[in-house]
Amino acid sequence: MSNETGGPRATTPGQQLRALFYVLPPGESSFRTVEEVPDYVEKSIPFFIAFIGLEFVVSWVQKRKLSGRINDGISSLSLGILSRLPDVLFRSIDLISYIYVWNNYRLFELPWDSPWTWYLTLLGVDFAYYCFHRMSHEVNILWAAHQVHHSSEDYNLFTALRQSVLQKYTSWILNLPMALFIPPSVFAVHLQFNLLYQFWIHTEVITNLGPLEWILNTPSHHRVHHGRNPYCIDKNYGGTLIIWDRIFGTFEAEDAKVVYGLTHPVNSFDPIMLQLRPLAHIWNTFWATPGFCNKLSVIFKGPGWGPGKPRLGLPEEIPVITGKEVPFNPSVPAYLNCYAVVHFAVIMDLFTELLGTVTALSQGTILLRIGFIIVSLTSFGLLMENRPKAGIFEIIRCLVFVGVYKLGYLRSQFSSLGYAYEVLFSLCAAFWGIQIMKRITSFKDKHH
Description:
Helix 13 (271-288) packs antiparallel against helix 14 (292-300) and helix 16 runs antiparallel to helix 17. The longest helix is centred in the C-terminal third of the chain and has 29 residues, at 418-446. The protein is mainly α. Helix content is 57%, strand content 0%.
C-alpha cells in the first residue's frame, strides 16, 4: 500500500490493535517507502494504557489483588519514557544504519509488496532479535544495558515498557544482513511489530495458550525468561517465535513458581541509577581484575564469569530460591504514592505533547523539556525510596516548572490545564518548603 502524500499512512484503531498482536496482514502493512510507514509504537500508547487497566481488573477478579505496585509501575514507565527520549533528537539508529547499507551495498531487491518478502522479514527480524537477545545475556557489557528490563521484581504489562536507553545502540548490528536484499520499508514495519508483540506477553493473567505454545513466544514462556530461579536463567530468548529456542537448546517450559527480577537485585527505583550502576560495576571490576586477557573477559564474557570460571560462570553460584523472597518495597506515606501518580501523569502529558510538536520546536526548547522530564523521573524514584533529599529535589523541580511554564517553554497537550498546573506546582513547592522547615526545626531541637 502506498500513500499518495508521501507521509506516514493513517491507521485505524482496529489496525493498531491487530499490530499489537502481529496479526496485521501483508496487504495492510506493506509500504513502498520508509516515509509511508506509520509509527505503530507511538500510536499504540492508548492501547498500552487500556490493556494495563484491563490487566488490573482481571488480576483483581482472579486473585483479589492488583497486578502491580505503584513504585515499581512508575519506575517501569519512567524507564520506558527515558528510553524514548533519544528518538526525540535523533532518527532511529536501526533505520539509519539499515538504510545506509541498503543504499550502498544491497545485492538485490526483493519486491516490497510481496507477501513472501513480508513473511521472510518476519522470520529475519525475529531471528536477529533472538541472536542479539541471547548475546545480551551472555556478554557482560551488553547485559549491563539489557538488565534494566529484568530489574523489576514484578511481572506485568508495566514491565514490558521497562526498557534500556543504551541497548538500541548495539542491537542494530545484527539486522544489517537483511539490508542486502530486504527493502527498508518492510524492515521498518517488522521492527515495530516484533517490539509491539512483546508487550502483551508480560503478564501473569494469561496462563497457557495450548498448541500456540509450541510456536509462539507466550506469557508462560516469557515468565520463565524473567525468572531468577536457577532453571530460568538464560532461557527463552525469542521475541515473537519460540522456535529458535527449541532449535538451539535454550527453551525451558514453566515449572516451579517463578520469582522475578535479577539474581542480585539492585533495590532502586531511580531510573538513572538503574541505567548506570551496572556499567559502574563493570568499570570497577575491570580495574580490579589482574591480567589484560582477564580484563577483556570482564567485558566480553558472561556477567557471572570470573578468573578460572567457565565463560558464563558457574550455575551453582546462582542464588537458590527459597520462596520467601520479598520485593524491594520501601514504606512510604499514602499521600506520597498519590503525589507521585499525579505528578507522573503530568510528565506523561508533557512527554506526549513533546512527541507531537517536536518538529515545530527549537533545539534549545527540546533539550530543556527533555532535561525537565529526566529530572522529574529521577525525583519520582527518590520519592518512592523515601530518600531524605527528595523533598529538596522536589521543591526545586516545582519552582523550575512554574517559572519555565510561565515563559512558555513547557506546554500541556490541553491548554485548559495550564492554570491548574501552575497552581498545583506552586502549592507543591510550598508544601515541600514547609516539610523542609519542619525537618530543620526538628534537627535543631534534637541538638539543643
